[in-house]
Amino acid sequence: MPARILETCLCKLYEKYNHREFVHPDPLEFLYRYDDPADREVVGLIASCLAYGNVHQILKTVASVLDRMPSPHRYLSAATERLLVNTFSDFKYRFTTGEELATMLLGTKMTLERFGSLHRCFSRGLTADHDTVIPALCTFVEELSSAFQGRPRSLLPSPTMGSACKRLNLFLRWMVRRDEVDPGGWYRVPPSKLIVPLDVHMHRISLHLGLTGRKQANLRAACEITAAFRAIEPDDPVRFDFSITRLGIRDDLTPEAFLEACRAQAGRSPQDRHPQAGAWEREGK
What we know:
Helix content is 53%, strand content 1%.
């Protein structure tokens, strides 16, 4: 699909959906409750790491964790390893156990003690010659994972293993970008270096849009898709991520209708178009 046509369609989608009224249900909404950046980055890490599975279960699970952590940054500062283990001993979400969650929080506490903030830890791994956040993300995950001491973990995947690291890239989008939806705050990290948070849903749409030809939703595919978005928005390649993911959540516009509208914009005959496509185009004008 021609880049100019794709840009037009994506901008329409952004203008329609990139508003806080469309955030729920999304774990991002937990970040809005915290004005202190020190709290917000801890909440963002917890919410993003647990962002797998059914979205309504995700919201219940994240809420149950945060309910035990009044003022998350202060809580971690004062918490001991024993307190964390005891506090989350009864926690279980799909394949994440209370022990793994407590260990991740311990690693977060150790990182905060070592660097002062997660923002500072991450930005120290990023240099001007890095094209993307991937090198810094590798270092960041290594720091956060120190408490695991080599034991298996699922909450903190690393790009070094070829993972698309969807949840951690989602966390970075929340913390780095700033608009009506993403709260931002990590001013040392340029949005231009972000990587698209790639899951099965985003991968499927990207395949249909011709942004990648890779069949696996891995790191290589995420980088390829990001490069395609960067050709449209060099300073903000993940700008459209939130809007695109609304297509899999909301009922008023399906992914199929969006794709059909893009094809129609590219000059395809309107015959046999999806019935929602025309409505989307009218609303976008």
